[in-house]
Amino acid sequence: MDTTVLILLFLSSLPLFYLLAKQKPPKKKLPPGPFGFPVIGQSLSLFRALRTNTGEQWLEQKVRKFGPVLKLSLFGHPTVFLAGQAANKLVFGNDTLTPRQTRSFTSIMGRQTMREMIGDDHRRLRAAFGQFLKPDVLKKYVSKIDEEVRYHIKMNWTGQQTVTVTPLMKCLTFDIMCSLIFGLDRGDTRQALATELVDMVAGMWSIPLNIPFTRFNKSMKASRRARRILSKVIQERRRNLDHGLCSPHADLITCLLSLNQEGCGNEALSEEEIIDNTIFAMVAGHDTTAVLITFMIRQLAKDPAIHAKVAREQEGIAKSKTPGETLTWDDLNKMKYTWRVALETLRMIPPVFGSFRKALKDVEFNGYLIPKGWHVFWASSMTQMNADIFHEPHKFDPTRFENQSSIPPYCFIAFGGGSRICPGNEFARIETLVAMHYIVTQFRWKLSGEDDGFTRYPLPSPSQGLTIKLEPKGDM
Fold first, then answer.
1. Which family does it belong to (predicted)?
2. Which listed site, 7, 90, 124, 340, has its alpha carbon 20 to 30 Å from 229?
3. Is the dihedral of CA 363, 368, 372, 374 positive or negative?
4. pLDDT (tens digit, 9 = 90+) per residue, 33-45?
C-alpha cells in the first residue's frame, strides 16, 4: 500500500479516534466485533467485496461469526451493522437514527438534500417534492417520458445489430431526468450536465481528501461546474414563471420555485436547497432506474419463459394503440406482470446495496448499545435474500409479488421504508415500464459473450456493460 493511501485512510479515520477518545466507557454492552486494523478499519475490505460482487457474502460471514448486531469501522466512523426484519424496522421507523451518507457523498451532492434533513426541514422538503410527484402531475409526465424513450430507441437501437445496454440506459434515464427535472431540451447545456454527472457519481464513495488528481477532487470540481449550470437554469425558470411563460408544474425546478405557503409550509426554498435537491434527485433517479432496466433486459435474455410472458403482456397493449399514439397512465396500470418482474429484479439485485444512519442519541437494540454519534449500516440483501423470508431466494420468481401484502413488513426494502420511503418510486415505475414496453415490442435479443458477471461499486453494473445481439420484430 503506498504512502498516499495510508495518509488518506489516516485522515478519514480521525473522527473514529475522536469519538472513541471522547466517550466514557459505556454502562451497557456494545455489539461484538472488532474495529479492524488501526486507521484502515474494514473499509478497504468492503470495497474489495463490492468490486467483486461478494459484498453479500462479506456481510453474511460477519453475521455468522458475531450475530445480526455487530460493530466495525467504516469510512473512519465507528459503525454498527444491523441485519434482519426487526433491524430494518428500527432503521426505517426510528427518528433517532437519521440518514447519513459518507462525507464524500454529502460533499459532492450537497448538505441540504432531503436525504440529510431531519424534523421540520425534512418534512418541508418532502412536501416540496410531493408537488412534483403527486399522481395527477405524474400522469401528465407519461407522454414526455414516452417521447424520450421513442427518440432514444430510434437514435440508438433501430438498425443496430448489437448494443451495449448499460451506457445506453444511463443515457436514456439521464435524458428523461433532464426533461422532467430541469426542463432542459437536447443541446449543449444538457450534454455539459451529463459530463459533470458522470464525474460526480464516480467519487461518491471515494476517500474524501480534496487534493489534486484524486477521484474525490475530480468529483468536487464537477459538482461546482454542475452547480453553476443549474444556477443559470434556475434563474431562467424564475424569469419565465414571473412572466407567465411556463407552468408551475413544467418540471421539478418550476415546482420548487412555485411553492406557496399553503403548498409547503411558511418558508420558501433557497437556491442552494433547490440545487442540492435537484442534483440529489438526478443522481438517485438516474443511475438506479438505469440499473433496474439493464438487469431486467439481462434476466429476460436468460429466461425465455418469463420473456415470453412479458412480451405477451406488452404486445397486447401495443395492439390496442393506434400508430404513433403514446402510452397512457391506464396502459401502465395494465403492465402488472412486467412490474412484478421489475420488483423481483430489485429484490435480487437492488441498485442500493446498503446505506448509513447516524444515532442522534444512545439507542438500545437487541440488548446492545448503539452510542450517540455512531453510524448504523444496513444492507438490502439481509432480508431480501433470506430463505426464511423468501423461499428459494436465488430463484427468479416474479409470482412472489402477486400479493405484495403477503410479504412481511420491512423485508422488501428496495425503496426504503417508513417515513423516508423513496418518494420517487412511482416515477421510477413509469420510466421502467415505458422503456421496457418499447424495447420488448420492437426487439428480440440474446446475450453477446459469455461473461455474465457484474460488480457493485458503487452500483451494480455488468462487467462488460451487457452487450446484446438485436433482432427487430418489425411492425406490430
1. Belongs to the cytochrome P450 family.
2. 124
3. negative
4. 998 876 678 888 9
Peptide bond into 26 cis (omega under 30): no
Measured CA to CA, the distance from residue 141 to residue 146 in angstroms comes to 9
Range of the domain at 133: 3-472
Please name which of 201, 454, 423 lies closest in space to residue 345, comparing C-alpha atoms.
Answer: 454
DSSP class of residue 184? P
Q: What is the pLDDT of residue 79?
A: 94
Based on the structure, what is the number of domains in the chain?
1
Q: Which of 149, 148, 129 is nearest to 278 (CA)?
A: 129
The mean pLDDT value of the chain amounts to 86
Task: Name the grid cell of 172.
Answer: 436514456
Do residues 93 and 418 make contact, with C-beta atoms less than 8 angstroms apart?
yes
47-63: pLDDT as tens digits: 889 888 899 999 999 99
Q: CA-to-CA distance for 226 and 215, rounded, in angstroms?
A: 16
Q: List the one residue out of 132, 135, 166, 172 whose CA is nearest residue 152.
A: 172
Q: Has 422 been labeled as part of a binding site? A: yes
Q: How far apart are the C-alpha atoms of 182 and 180, rounded to whole Å?
A: 6
Cα 366 to the center of its chain, rounded Å: 29
Backbone angles phi and psi of 317, in degrees to 5: -70, -40
Q: What is the pTM of this model?
A: 0.86
Q: Are 84 and 383 within 8 A, CB to CB? A: yes
Q: Give the integer Cα–Cα distance in Å for 35 and 37.
A: 7
> Which residue's entry shows cell 504512502?
3
CA-to-CA dists, residue 101 to 107, 205, 224, 458, angstroms: 10, 9, 19, 13
- Beginning with the edge strand found earlier in the chain, give each strand of the sheet holding 97-99 in spatial order: 69-74, 77-82, 375-379, 354-359, 97-99
| pLDDT(475) > 70 | no
Tell me if 259 sits within 8 A of 187, measured CB to CB: no
Sign, Cα dihedral of 149, 150, 152, 156: positive
As a whole number of angstroms, the distance between CA 287 and CA 302 comes to: 23
Q: Report the Cα–Cα distance between both ends of the chain, in Å, rounded.
A: 58
Grid cell at residue 324: 404513433
User: Under a CB-based contact definition with an 8 Å cutoff, are residues 387 and 393 in contact?
Assistant: yes
CATH number of 112's domain: 1.10.630.10
pLDDT in tens, 116-144: 777 777 777 787 787 778 888 889 889 99
Q: Report cis status (omega within 30 of 0) of the bond before 458.
A: yes
206 or 357: which leads in pLDDT: 357
Per the document, the length of the chain is 476
- Judge whether 339 and 429 are in contact, CB under 8 Å: yes
For 133-147, 253-267, 336-350, which range has the lowest pLDDT when averaged over its residues?
Answer: 253-267
C-alpha cell at 305: 419463459
Which cell goes with 252?
421539478
